[in-house]
Write a structure and sequence with these properties.
Elements: H1 6-14, H2 26-35, E1 44-48, H3 53-66, E2 71-74, E3 86-88, E4 91-92, H4 95-109, H5 116-130, E5 135-139, E6 156-159, H6 167-170, H7 174-181, E7 191-193, H8 200-209, E8 213-215, E9 221-228, E10 234-240, E11 243-250, H9 256-272, H10 280-289, E12 297-300, E13 304-308, H11 313-323, E14 332-336, H12 344-351, E15 357-361, H13 371-380, E16 387-389, H14 392-402, E17 408-412, H15 415-424
Parallel strand pairs: 1-5, 1-6, 2-5, 6-7, 7-8, 13-17, 14-15, 14-17, 15-16
Antiparallel strand pairs: 2-3, 3-4, 9-10, 10-11, 12-13
Helix pairs in contact: 2-4, 2-5, 3-9, 3-10, 4-5, 7-8, 11-12, 12-13
Length: about 425
C-alpha cells in the first residue's frame, strides 16, 4: 500500500471517530502507554484558560529559545496549515515529520477510535520525543481536565483567565468552567493563575490536590507605567518570589491582558529558567518581537489591517482595549463572523462603540453562524445596518472599497475568518 500524504492522513483521521469532540482521557492514555514516550523530567508545561493561551505559549517558547533551550510547542487550532500546531524550536514540523509521527501512532493504536485532536496530540508528543525537545509546552484544546493534553501530568500548570465560552462542553457558569480548567493541576507541582478575581474552583482544586498555587496580584505582580522610553516603548516591572525585575519594556499596543500574559510567563520562567530573569535585555528583546499570527497582527497595505482571532466577549473587550492604544483612525470597518456556539450579541456590543461599519462574512464551515443568526445578534447589540458578503474574500474586497485609505480594517471573530485574511493579504 503506498504511503499516505499528509492531506490523506488528516482526512482519514477525521473518519476514525463519529465525534469531532469527545472529551476523556482513556483512549489517548491507552495509546500513549503503547508509544512508550518519556517526557523531559520536570519540564512539561500545560497552559489552560479561556483567552490568552496562544500568546502565552508563544511567548514562553520564545523566551526558552532565548535561553538556548529546545522547546516543543503544541497548539490548536491552526490558521492555514496543520503543521502550525506542532513546532520544534519555533519552527513548524515538516510534512514528512508529521507523516512519520502519524505512522508511529497508527502502528500502536490497534482498535482504539481516536478523535482527530487526540491523534494529533499523540503525534505532537512523538515529534517532541524524536526531536529531543527539553521542554514540552502544551496548549489545552478545550477545558483542561478531560482534554487530551492532560494525559501528561503537568510539571507546571498555567491558567490564563476564565470566562464564559464553550458552555455546551464545560458548564454554564464561570465556576463550572474554572473547575474544568483547574484539572490540569497536579499534586506538589507549581500552578499559576493570571487574573483577578480568582474563581473559587481554582483555589479549591489547588488545595484538594496539594498543588502550590500562585496568583497574579498577590503572589506575583506587574507594575505598569504611562512613561514612554526613548525607543518608543512602555516601561514596566515585575515582582515575583525570586525578586523584582525593573527596566522591562512593552510594545505600545499592550493592554492589561498582554501584561497579564507576560507576567504569567515570567512566573513560569522563575521555575523553569530563573537565570534568564536576570537578563533584562534578553527579556525585552523577546517582548518586542514575540507575537503569534492572528493575535492583534498589524498589517500595512493600502489600509491598516488588524487581524485578531478574538471570538468571545472577553476577547472582544481585550481587542477593543488594544485598538484604543493605537492612534485614532478616521473610520474603522470590522469584518467578522462567529461560529454557531459563540455569543454574537455581547461580542458585537464590546466592539460597537469604536466601529464605523460592520461587514459579516459567510464561511464554508458547517459550524458557522447563519447570516440570520448573525443579523439577529447584531440587531440585539444595537447594530441595525451592516453589509453581508458571501465569502471572506468578498468581504475583504468590500471593506477595501468602503473604507477610506486613512481608515482601519479589523478582521476578527474566528480562526476561520482570520486565516483567509492572512492568505488574501499575501502573508501565507
Amino acid at each position: 500500500m503506498p504511503a499516505r500524504t499528509l492531506a490523506e492522513w488528516l482526512r482519514w483521521q477525521e473518519s476514525l471517530s463519529p465525534h469531532a469532540v469527545e472529551l476523556g482521557l482513556e483512549r489517548v492514555s491507552t495509546v500513549l502507554e503503547r508509544l512508550d514516550l518519556v517526557p523531559p523530567a520536570g519540564r512539561v508545561v500545560t497552559v489552560a484558560g479561556t483567552n490568552g493561551k496562544g500568546t502565552t505559549v508563544t511567548l514562553l517558547q520564545d523566551m526558552l529559545l532565548a535561553a538556548d533551550r529546545r522547546p516543543g510547542l503544541y497548539t490548536s487550532p491552526h490558521l492555514v496549515r496543520y503543521n502550525e500546531r506542532i513546532r520544534i524550536c519555533g519552527e513548524p514540523v515538516s510534512d514528512a515529520g508529521l507523516v512519520r509521527a502519524f505512522e508511529r501512532v497508527e502502528a500502536v493504536r490497534g482498535d482504539v477510535p481516536l478523535t482527530y485532536f487526540e491523534f494529533g496530540t499523540l503525534a505532537a508528543f512523538s515529534c517532541f520525543a524524536q526531536a529531543h525537545c527539553d521542554t514540552w509546552i502544551l496548549e489545552v484544546g478545550l477545558g483542561g481536565r478531560l482534554d487530551a493534553v492532560n494525559v501528561l501530568a503537568a510539571d507546571l500548570a498555567l491558567i490564563t483567565t476564565i470566562a464564559l465560552d464553550h458552555q455546551d462542553w464545560l458548564g454554564e457558569t464561570v465556576e463550572e468552567i474554572a473547575a474544568e480548567k483547574a484539572g490540569i493541576m497536579r499534586p506538589g507541582r507549581p500552578a499559576f493563575y493570571a487574573d483577578q478575581p480568582v474563581p473559587v474552583a481554582i483555589g479549591k482544586h489547588a488545595a484538594e490536590t496539594g498543588a502550590p498555587l500562585a496568583v497574579l496580584g498577590s503572589d506575583f505582580s506587574c507594575l505598569t507605567s504611562s512613561e514612554t522610553t526613548a525607543d518608543g516603548l512602555r516601561s514596566w516591572s515585575w515582582q515575583g518570589a525570586t525578586g523584582r525585575i525593573s527596566g522591562l519594556k512593552a510594545p505600545q499596543y499592550w493592554s492589561a491582558a498582554q501584561y497579564r500574559n507576560a507576567s504569567l510567563v515570567l512566573a513560569a520562567l522563575s521555575v523553569l529558567e530563573p537565570g534568564l530573569l536576570a537578563d533584562v535585555a534578553a527579556l525585552n528583546a523577546v517582548f518586542a518581537r514575540s507575537r503569534p499570527d492572528g493575535r492583534f497582527q498589524q498589517v500595512r497595505a493600502v489600509h491598516e489591517w488588524i487581524l485578531d482571532v478574538a471570538h468571545n466577549p472577553q476577547a472582544a473587550a481585550v481587542l477593543r482595549a488594544q485598538l484604543e492604544t493605537l492612534p485614532r483612525a478616521g473610520e474603522m470597518t470590522i469584518v467578522t463572523t462567529l461560529l454557531a456556539d459563540k455569543a454574537v450579541t455581547p461580542f458585537v456590543a464590546a466592539l460597537a462603540p469604536i466601529a464605523t461599519r460592520w461587514i459579516v462574512a459567510g464561511i464554508d464551515d458547517p459550524r458557522a453562524s447563519s447570516s440570520e443568526r448573525m443579523g439577529a445578534g447584531m440587531a440585539a447589540a444595537g447594530i441595525g445596518v451592516f453589509e453581508y458578503a458571501v465569502t471572506p474574500e468578498a468581504a475583504f474586497e468590500l471593506a477595501e472599497r468602503l473604507t477610506p485609505p486613512t481608515g482601519r480594517i479589523v478582521v476578527c471573530g474566528s480562526f476561520r475568518i482570520v486565516a483567509p485574511a492572512l492568505q488574501w493579504l499575501g502573508l501565507y
